[in-house]
Each structure stands twice: as structure tokens, then as C-alpha cells.
Specification:
Helix content: 25-40%
Distance between the termini: 34 Å
Order of helices and strands: EHEHEHHHEEHHEEEEEEEHH
Largest sheet: 6 strands, mixed
Structural class: alpha/beta
Number of helices: 9
Bound molecules: fe (ii) ion
Shape: globular
Strand order of the largest sheet: 3-2-1-11-12-9
CATH architecture: 4-Layer Sandwich
Strand content: 15-25%
Length: 254
């Protein structure tokens, strides 16, 4: 077993992508998996994804979609809202709260918002707002203050997900896309760094392969994993509340 830690995020009920990523992590011999949240939402297999996450991840944080199961979803777009309503319907336990259903539900209800380890911070979205704020490359042009504030709140390295777009913000306010990194490796510098680990179950950087990172002794490495997205797509299309867009986007990585 290596001393590498895998960090995954935004599984979004995509069981095929999650299995492929876990297999890859096991082949790498990682000693631990940290999950930055959004286990559910958008996809067809929330219960199975929660089971795998509960079993395999040492740390699991709360994403905005996990959180949305327990409140009215007024701020979601119709696609995301439909998926959360579907997820709540199949996952919410009945009055007698016992068994696997209740265990999953209570697990999701009590997910923490952040995790700190030395000078590393793990959150779903942003050090400014662990649940909802999007840190985007375009903010470096149009909203630099947001990135500066997020770096200020970063102890040294912050790991985030949420945008489904992998990449690294450095203290000189640059964004490093994994495709431009040699072997997907970003060496940590002395300054503060925010690492977006990308998405397992719904990548949006025009690459349909599942994405995650490993933390290595002196940096972070991006991994992309092929998975059978056509099976996920056919499950989405044969399930009631989903629209074609939720299936199509998996094949395009959008
Ligand atoms: Fe997400």
C-alpha cells in the first residue's frame, strides 16, 4: 500500500463511474479515500453510491445536493430539482426508521461541512462558503476578490469540488488545467493553493472520463478513468423523472 490519499467528489449517483474510480484507486494502492460530497443528485443510483461511499471513504463531506435532500430546493434549476425530488422519494425512510434506508438517510443528514488535516482544508465548494460558492477560472478575470478571499481562508492547501471542472488555483492567481500538467502532476509550491479535484460522476470539462486526484508527498496528481457511461445513460433514460440532457451530458463531459 502506498502513502497516497485519493480525493474524489461529485459522484452524483453515477455507480458505473464510482466503481471504475474505486477500482483504479485500489490498483494504485491508496491508503485512504476522502470524498468532498455530492454523492447524490442527477444520476440513477443514489442508494448504491451512498453504500459504496460509506464503506470505502474515511472522510465524507456534505455537498449542496446531499444537503438539498433535507430542505426545500428552491434555488436549484429544474433538472437538479427533479433529480433531488426523485432521490428523496426513493431514499427517505418511512415512519419506522430502522434498517439500511435509515442508516443511509442519517449518514447523509449528518455529513460534516469541512475537514482539516494539518495545513490542508477539505470542503465541497469553497473555503469562503463550504457548501455553495463556485470558484471558476473566469473569476480570475471578473471576480478576482472572490479567489483572493478563498486563498486567504486557505491554510496552505484547500481541496474543493462543486464546479465539476478540475484545476489548480495558485497564489499568483493563475489557473492550471490538468491537460497542461506533465503526467497530470502539480507540484505544491510554497504559497497557498486551491485544488479542484473534478467530478467522478458528471465531469464538465469536455472530457467524459471520471476524474479524481491523489495527494502525493510533494504535490497532487490528476487521474482520468474510462467508464461505461452508456449504461448510466440508459438507466437515466429508462427512469421516470430524468430528462435527455442528464444522459447526453455524460457522453460529452458537460
Ligand atoms: Fe456537484
Amino acid at each position: 500500500m502506498s502513502d497516497r490519499i485519493a480525493v474524489i467528489s461529485d459522484i452524483h449517483s453515477n455507480l458505473e463511474a464510482l466503481h471504475a474510480v474505486i477500482d483504479h484507486i485500489d490498483a494504485l494502492g491508496c491508503r485512504e479515500i476522502v470524498c468532498l460530497g455530492d454523492i447524490v443528485g442527477y444520476g440513477p443510483d443514489p442508494e448504491a453510491c451512498v453504500d459504496v461511499t460509506m464503506e470505502r471513504c474515511g472522510v465524507v463531506l456534505r455537498g449542496n445536493h446531499d444537503d438539498a435532500l433535507f430542505r426545500p430546493v428552491l434555488d436549484f434549476n429544474p433538472v437538479a430539482r427533479n433529480a433531488i425530488n426523485f432521490t428523496r422519494k426513493i431514499m427517505k425512510p418511512g415512519l419506522v426508521r430502522a434498517g439500511k434506508k435509515a442508516k443511509r438517510w442519517e449518514f447523509l443528514r449528518h455529513l460534516p461541512l469541512q475537514h482539516s488535516r494539518g495545513d490542508w482544508l477539505f470542503v465541497h465548494a469553497s473555503p469562503n462558503d463550504p457548501l455553495k460558492e463556485y470558484l471558476l477560472k473566469t473569476d480570475l478575470l471578473f471576480c478576482r476578490e472572490k479567489i483572493i478571499e478563498a486563498l486567504d481562508r486557505t491554510p496552505r492547501i484547500a481541496f474543493v469540488g462543486h464546479t465539476h471542472i478540475p484545476g489548480v488555483f495558485d497564489e499568483r492567481l493563475r489557473f492550471h488545467e490538468p491537460r497542461n500538467l506533465e503526467d497530470g502532476f502539480y507540484p505544491f509550491e510554497s504559497g497557498k493553493t486551491i485544488v479542484n479535484v473534478g467530478s467522478v460522476g458528471q465531469p464538465r470539462d469536455h472530457d467524459p472520463r471520471a476524474c479524481f486526484v491523489t495527494i502525493e508527498s510533494d504535490g497532487v496528481r490528476y487521474h482520468r478513468v474510462d467508464y461505461d457511461f452508456r449504461t448510466t445513460q440508459s438507466k437515466i433514460l429508462s427512469n421516470g423523472p430524468f430528462d435527455d440532457f442528464s444522459a447526453d451530458r455524460l457522453g460529452r463531459g458537460q
